[in-house]
Amino acid sequence: MINVPISQLKMRNYNDNTIVKMAFQFSLDVIEFAEILREQKRFSISDQILRAGCSIGANVKEAQGAESKADFIHKMKVALKEAEETEYWLELCNFSKNYPKPGTLLQHIESILKVLNKIISTSKNKSLANRTLRIEN
After folding, report:
1. CB atoms within 10 A of CB 41
2. Which domain holds residue 39?
3. Is residue 3 in some structural domain?
4. Is 102 within 8 Å of 94 (Cβ atoms)?
């Protein structure tokens, strides 16, 4: 798999943000796996994995510029849905006899799912705490 030193990336929010880095690296790895699928003429699955897998990072990146906490949570939820879909397609490849195995992509998507769930949960709790604080004051 491709391993890009994050320090080479010029985009903001990459150097100090774990989920942004994870999602970007995952997208690079997904692109590589999708090309392997295409070489084996598995076009439909390749397209699905490429679309959903790269969408995770795009939504995470978009969340960094969210207009509000609710907007941030919404965009992270969209990223989570894309991650769940990606996991599904990778599992199909993993259990199908005539498809290449996704290897470490399954482990990486599990890690991304855990981080996204934690981010969403923490953000919701902070948002709820802030609303409760405002009501009490």
Report:
1. 7
2. 11-136
3. no
4. yes
